[in-house]
């Protein structure tokens, strides 16, 4: 299950891709094109969990 943003504010690109059914390369391409929201800290690319919830059309209160 997708973690709550309060429990885990960010996910790796690979982890986020798994929730979307994407492989590693496709997930990184999606961050590059802007289809998957991401933030860069140095060389590390992370996906905000809240943005992933929103992308999936879900609310963190919908935990089922």
Structure characterization notes:
By secondary structure, this protein is an alpha+beta fold. The protein has one domain (10-55). Helix content is 39%, strand content 17%. The chain contains three helices and three strands; from the N terminus they run E-H-H-E-E-H. Helix 1 crosses helix 2 (24-33). The longest helix is centred in the middle third of the chain and has 10 residues, at 24-33. It is globular, with a radius of gyration of 11 Å. The mean pLDDT is 94.
Element layout with pairings:
Blueprint: E1 10-12, H1 13-20, H2 24-33, E2 39-41, E3 44-48, H3 49-55
Antiparallel strand pairs: 1-3, 2-3
What kind of oligomer do you see?
Answer: single chain
The end-to-end span amounts to: 9 Å
| Global mean pLDDT | 94
Helix content bin: 25-40%
Q: What is the general shape?
A: globular
Task: Provide the low-confidence segments as ranges.
Answer: none
- The order of strands across the largest sheet is 1-3-2
Biggest beta sheet attributes: 3 strands, antiparallel
Quick summary of this structure?
The protein is of the alpha+beta class and 64 residues long.
Q: Which properties best describe this structure?
A:
64 residues, three-stranded antiparallel beta sheet, single chain
